[in-house]
Design brief:
alpha+beta; Aminopeptidase; Alpha-Beta Plaits; six-stranded mixed β-sheet; four-stranded antiparallel β-sheet; elongated
Amino acid sequence: MDNKNREVIDLLIKLLSHNSVTPDDAGLLSFIESYLDGYSSIWKNEAGVKNLFLYKKFSEGPHLCFAGHVDVVPAGDGWDSNPFIPIIDAGVITARGAQDMKSGVAAFVQAMRDSSGFKGTLSLLLTSDEEGEAKYGTQIMLEYLKEIALLPDYSIVAEPTCDKLFGDSIKIGRRGSINGVVEKHGRQGHAAYPEKSINPIHKVAQILPEIAGVDLDEGDEYFAPSKFVITDIRAGMEVTNVTPGKLKMMFNIRNSTKTDAASVERFVGRYFDGMNYTLKLSQSAKPFLTNPDTPVVRALDSAIEQICHIKPDHSTAGGTSDARFLAEYGVETVEFGVINDTIHAPNERTTIDEVEKLYQIFLIAIEQF
C-alpha cells in the first residue's frame, strides 16, 4: 500500500470510529473542515442537523461538487464486533457506515485534498441528516447556495452503487417515490345480515387483481416500470360478527419519469369509480435522469475504465438518496461508490481494495474533468 492509499484508509478508519447516528455528526464535519485546509467553509445548522459546504475556486470553469452524508443508521443487533470500532481482517473493513457511506466520504475528501488543481471550482457538501427525515440536511444548504449564486453545475454523490464487482454500476438517475392512502367507506353491520351493510372488504377485493402489482407504465432504457405496490390493508375490529364500516389501503409507487401523482390519481379513480372513497397522495421523491453524455458521467466512466478496466452500467435502480435534491436544483448529478450488499445490516463491511480504487477514480475524475 503506497502512502496515498494508506492515507485514505486511515481517514476512513477515523470516520468509522465516530458514532454518528442521525442527526449527530459526532464532530466529523469539523474534522473534515480542518482536514481540507485551504477550502472556504459555509455552515448551515438547523434542528440539531449540521451541514457543511467547502469550496475552492482554482480558476474560471465549471463547478464540481462531491456530496454525501456522515450520519449512519443505528447499529442494531447481530454484530460480531463493536460496530463503531472498525475491524480490518484479510483486507475487509467491518463497521457501521463502511459502505453507506463513509467509504465514499473518505475517498472524495482525500481526493480533494490530494488534487493539485482543478479547472474551475471544486466543492464538497456534507450533511448529518440523510438517513433521517432529510428535512434539515442537503435541502437547507442548497437553498442557501442558490441564494448566493454558488450552486454547483455538476455533482458526484458517493453512495454505494456497485452490484457484483466494484466499478460495475453508476447511477445516472433515481426513481421517485409516491405514497398513497385510500380509505373506502362502507356501512358497518352484523355479519349475519350482510344485506343490511356495505362491506368495504368485499368491494375492494373485487378490484385487487386489477391494481395489485400492476405496472403503471412500460419503463424505458433507464427506468423499470412504475409498479403499484400495496403495502398495507386493514379494516374491522378483529371480531367475527361485525362487518367493517371502513377499509384503509396504503401503497407505494417507485415511479419513473413516465408516471406522476396526477396519473396515479387517475389510475385509482378508474377502479374506485362509484365507490365512496378518499385518496391522499404524497411524493417523497421525484424521479430524475442525468444525460449519460454529460461531462460528469463521461468523467466517471473514463476514470472507472482506467482503474477497473470495465465499462460501468448506467442504472436508476434502488431507493432514494440526496441526489434527488441536487437534481431538483438543476445540478447534473451522478452517484458512484463501493459495492452495496451490507448497507444497514449487521457486520456492514467493505474492502480496502474498493476504497483505494474509489479514491483513485475520484482523483482522476477531478484531474481529467
